[in-house]
Amino acid sequence: MLGVALRGRRALTLAACIATAAVTAGPAEMAHGATHHPRRLNPIVVRTTPAVAGLPFEFSGVKFITDGSGSFVLPPYLLPAEVGIPKVGFAAIVLRLRMLPSRRADGVVYRLERVYQRFHRIAPRNTARVILAAIDAYVPVRFSLHDRFGKPISPSLYQSMTIKRSDGAIFRIKRNRLYSRATVLRASRVVPLNGKLISKALDYRIQSVIVGGNNVVNRAQQAFTPLHRRRVAVHLLFYSARGSARDTLFGFGIGSGIRLVYPDGHVEHRRFASGHERFLRALPRGTYHISANAWGLSGSQPLSLTRDQVVELKVFSYLDMGVAVAAMLLVAVGLIAVGRGRFRPRGGSARVELSTVPSLATIAPAVPTATVPSIRHHSPTAQPASGAAPTPPVQASEVAPTRKQKPKPTKPRRSQSESSDPPLLPEFPPRRGGT
User: Fold this and answer.
1) Does residue 142 sit in the same domain as residue 224?
2) Cβ neighbours of residue 206 under 8 Å, at least 6 residues apart?
3) Containing domain of residue 171, as a range?
């Protein structure tokens, strides 16, 4: 409540002062908007920071030009009646003071950004008051694009450029604006420092330059000051590549050109020079896909350009395909031939005539006779009488051969200990006499 009462009292006091000034000035002077009492009002000096000569100003319809020190004087008869009131008079002066648009021969434009009151109380009698006008300069800047070696680059692939000012403001410059006319940038700014106004130059740093879909500069590496440098050469990271196409099996040159896909997706076809090679100059930094235009199979190969490179593309031509098919057929035929010779029986044909097979009857005489041992059984009914001669063993009858054949050599019989066959039953000698 106390604060509200104080504000109300101040407002009433200010209104009373303004009314008193109006009554003192008179109706005619109030209609004219100024007072003609130079003894009571002192002139006001308007001074620009920085000091610039030849700047046009206007105050209450009257035009003024700054001198060599960048200042001009407002006469007392143009000052409003409220000028004698602190703060109120300063606000009335600011409302009536404006800077006319101006452009110098070199293209620099100055603009009035702010007006500062240098005094905080009423100046002594016959003392001029000073008002400081902060002036900012806007300078036209022209950009040019060059590669790492300083050679100019065609703007056909250029898309946009982004720059950042030292106070944090970011600007984007498009292609048509970059090459059609100069870009006007704010070059200075007035700031209060230690009770004074100081004009500081603004710096800019290049954040990105988009060419072919990629940023081709290192961020914030290149900087410039428009107040001291109005032509800026931007050096871009462009590299070169040498591409060639070779046959996969025989190594000779093949194809008519190279198909190059840029990082942004658009495609370019470059024809080969002599020797089935092509030198690709001034390619922006980025990742490309390259392939050969040839009769055959040529896959797309990624190409990451961060330095100068040499690329050799391999093409599996139709000649290579024919040679590969012929080689596979020869291998298949060779395998078939080797397989048939491996499974053929030795000693002639595998066919056997039935007429040459001997009959069992002709084979039987050739078989040597074998003695069959007699085995005596201990049966009580089969025992012979005492004193009887033993019965001789039965031998197989020999059959006369009906056809002369060469007897087959018989192998010597192995003893029972040497033979691996199971042993035969033992032969019992015949008994003599009784039991």
Assistant:
1) yes
2) 161, 162, 163, 217, 220, 221, 222, 223, 234
3) 137-235
Percentage with pLDDT > 70 across the chain: 65
Which stretches of 237-380 are assigned E, i.e. beta strand? 238-247, 257-261, 267-271, 277-284, 286-293, 296-297, 301-305, 309-317
Condensed to tens digits (0 to 9), the pLDDT of residues 392-401 reads 554 444 444 5
The 10s digit of each residue's pLDDT in 65-110 is 999 999 999 998 888 877 767 667 788 888 899 999 888 888 999 9
Is 82 found in the same domain as 42? yes
DSSP β-ladder status, 277-284 and 238-247: antiparallel
Alpha helices of 198-356 — where are they, by DSSP H?
318-342
Same domain, residue pair 221 and 269: no
Residues 344-354, buried b or exposed e (16+ Cβ, 10 A)? eeeeeeeeeee
Amino acid in position 43: P
Question: How many whole angstroms separate alpha carbon 428 and alpha carbon 335?
Answer: 66
Same structural domain for residues 32 and 128? Answer: yes
Tokens of 218: 């290192």
Please give the structure tokens belonging to residue 166: 């030292």
